Amino acid sequence: MIPREILKKIRQIELRTTRLVSETMGGQYHSVFKGQGMNFEEVREYQPGDEVRSIDWNVTARMNHPFVKKFVEERELTLMLVVDLSGSGLFGSRDQSKRELAAELGSVLAFSAIRNNDKVGLILFTEEVEKYIPPKKGRRHVLRVIREILCFQPAQRGTNFGKALDALNRLARRHAIAVIISDFLFERRPAAEGDGQRAGGYLLSPTLGPRTLPALRQANRRHDVIAIHVVDRFELALPALGRLVFTDAETGEMIEINTHDARKRRAFADRREKHQAELMRVLRSANIDAIEVRTGEPYAAALGQFFETREKRRRRG
After folding, report:
1. What's the pLDDT at 207?
2. CB-based contact 77:113 (threshold 8 Å)
3. Mean of the pLDDT values across residues 131-160?
């Protein structure tokens, strides 16, 4: 039995996102993401303006006047949502956590997909692949996808992109639109002797470090991989609120910081800026488009700009 408050939240997400899909996103999705070919539909009489190369000469010879072949786009695609459920996704400094925003973004994309008769699948991951929902069509299926992103209780709290990408390549056998939704925060691996930046016996390293880059490139060769980076304002710059105790949602480590200290706030912002730059560098090197969205802020403009950029690139290509 699903709790009433969860059902209410899912319904609110559905109402907000279906309106956005109807007004703008559905059409943009259709124009940007194309099928993999053209299917023959019928033969009809030639009309002025038809492409001469489409004339069916066999039918034309039999009927003694020109006929053309009509083709339609092979429209059906698969949208795979690859969603990070690590512990850091539960954070949100406003009325919305990063995980709630991930569910809303997944809803917009999923409803856009089924509106265009595409299938939607879901991979939820932490340090392991926690759940896989095979691609299907239909509103009820999309509502299940939203519910799982919102409510699934993962067994682990950390992050391992390599396993998620391996699962994507193994489970999605045909070309798919693969959207990774994550905060792309730091993952931790055991530190060896002589390693530099240590914290409680662990080495801090970007989630998309050198080990992950080959898997990203392989995934993007097989699929159209897109990264949606979900962030919170307090993860970019600390507020000046005095002494605060922070708990790492993925490791349970605790640290006390005097946020009135301008040097500490500056150092925090500098580290985050370097992390952002490294993340963008890795994604660019894998030829993956990235979208940044923030909790508690409208995301339609960021998605719209992404679709517009993709459409311009498609026309040039």
Report:
1. 59
2. yes
3. 95
CA dist., res. 163 & res. 207, Å (int): 12
What own/partner pairs with CB < 8 Å and gap ≥ 24 does 88-92 have? 88/159, 88/183, 88/185, 88/248, 88/249, 88/250, 89/182, 89/183, 89/230, 90/249, 91/232, 91/235, 91/249, 92/232, 92/295, 92/296
DSSP for 74-139 reads ----EEEEEEE--GGGG--SSSS-HHHHHHHHHHHHHHHHHHTT-EEEEEEESSSEEEEEEEE-SH
Domains and CATH numbers, the chain: 39-73 (no CATH), 76-316 (3.40.50.410)
Q: Which amino acid is at 219?
A: A
Pairing of strands 129-136, 119-125: antiparallel
Distance CA 123, CA 88 (A): 18
Coil, helix or strand for 71? strand
Q: What number is the average pLDDT over the span 293-312?
A: 93
Q: Tell how far CA 104 is from the center of its chain.
A: 11
Full-model pTM: 0.82
Kindly report the backbone phi and psi dihedral angles of residue 24, in degrees, each rounded to the nearest multiple of 5, phi listed first: -140, -50
Residue 178 has pLDDT above 60, yes or no: yes
CA distance 98 to 233: 11
Residue at 166: amino acid letter? D
**Is the pLDDT confidence value at 145 over 60?**
yes
